[in-house]
Amino acid sequence: MSAKGKIVVIGSGAAGTGAARTLAAAGWDTTVVERDRVGGTCLWRGCMPKKALYNSARARRNADRAEMFGLEGARGFDWQSVLAWKWHSQETYAGDQEAGFTDRGIRLVKDDARFVSPDAVEVAGERVSFDHAIIATGSRPVIPPITGIELADTSTGALGYPEPPSSLLVVGGGFIGLELGAIYASFGTEVTIITSAVRPLEMLDEEISAIPLRRLERLGVAFHTSCRLKSLSGSPGAVTARFSDAAGASHERTWERVLVAVGRKPSVDDLDLAAAGVEVDGRGGIVLDTSHRTTNPRVWVAGDAAGGMMQTPIANYQGRTVAASIDSGAASELDDSMVPTCLFTTPQVAQVGLTETQAHASGIEISIGRASFEFLGAAVIEDERDGLVKLLFAEDDGRLVGAHIAGPAASDLIYAAAVAMRCGATRDTLRATIGIHPAFCEALNWAAG
Question: What is the mean pLDDT of residues 435-445?
Answer without folding.
Answer: 96
